[in-house]
């Protein structure tokens, strides 16, 4: 039997009848405060994105118990962290069976692409995210490209290849530079922008041989290289309707001025100016809604967050990629701007009534600066003592989200490549940037590095009027 997810009034049947009767006579126009139904929530994941989700859920008056699996040292301050193997469906099912959450929120793509939502749904357990079939929009770039072609969703010209002969043949149709993408999940390492046709062949060979990315690279997508500014446009879907979240921009390269190799994301920011109402409607009408309608028509209903990675080109917005979950680090500034209850939005998505959900945002911008371990995105050492987090959080409007930390004897230590997402809200973008960097300056750990130009593009647009 499926659990009932939403209960508006926690009162018995008789009391309910009396209440409706009395309310009709006496309180016809008055608002009666309902006693919130207590909710036990489980969040899956262990990064900065999950910390932001947990931090926001913690603020919901309805959340009475919050678990995060596996979580991290910083998340442990906001939720009870429990061990789990995110790569194992058995482990996830056993955990949920033991904790019996009223709802499970899936953070990262891996459990989604393995089918955690399908497994939970089969058991009648409320869970937030797309099924395995729907998550193919992220887990297979060739699926996503062919889907976009079928549904006329604007995207770069492409060709799917499984061997070098096909690459050579396809290359006749492309001008350099050409983008070479591994078909499967590659944790941000599956995209090469090749400047010459020789580079394309080399990159494709590295992927197709399976040496570089294993199975994820056994099929590659060659893509026309697009120019413009990138935008992360996320919507919440209930399978039929979508509600846009505020837009954000990621900073994928490791060094300032977009230099150096790609990372999981070195920072992000979100402002109202990124997309005006007209552009937001355009993105919903021409991208988000057709994707959700197309998936539904193809029998793979898409529920949860649909992350559209967009390039704003001179020819108009074009889709670079889809992700089937919240972005990391975009979620940190997006969540900082959310004024409504995240749990309500999540429930509305699960229950198929997302357009009735309460989604409210502050106009204040938010900025997240990622502090990373020395060497990241290459090899790095973990176990470095971190100081200054409390001082950083004393700055008004600042929250430090933990991405890769653990806690021992009352102190935090680094445990991952991306360590902290120092996030600040401000009255305007310069204010948010200043607060974020003031907070960063309070924090220290051996080898730490971070970009000094997060949101610089937004500041430039502001100066240009
Ligand atoms: P993806 O995983 O497909 O989003 O690619 C990662 C990053 O590679 C994107 O955020 C872009 O910066 C870049 N990229 C991907 N596809 C293209 C493209 N067709 N043209 C230019 N840059 C691209
Ligand atoms: N920030 C990009 C991603 O979440 O995939």
Could you please describe the fold and organization of this structure?
With 465 residues, the protein is an alpha+beta fold. It folds into 3 domains: 41-129, Rossmann fold (3-Layer(aba) Sandwich); 157-224, 2-Layer Sandwich (Dna Ligase, domain 1); 229-464, 2-Layer Sandwich (D-amino Acid Aminotransferase, Chain A, domain 1), CATH 3.30.470. Helices cover 31% and strands 25% of the residues. It has helices spanning 13-25, 48-58, 89-99, 109-114, 116-122, 136-139, 141-150, 164-171, 197-208, 277-297, 331-336, 342-350, 389-393, 429-442, 456-463, and strands at residues 39-45, 63-70, 80-81, 103-106, 127-128, 158-161, 178-182, 191-194, 220-224, 229-238, 242-244, 249-250, 253-255, 259-262, 267-270, 303-313, 316-323, 366-372, 385-386, 398-402, 405-408, 411-414, 418-425. Mean pLDDT is 92; it is low at 6-34. Bound molecules: adenosine monophosphate (AMP) and glycine (GLY). Glycine binds at residues 250, 265, 323, 327-328, 330.
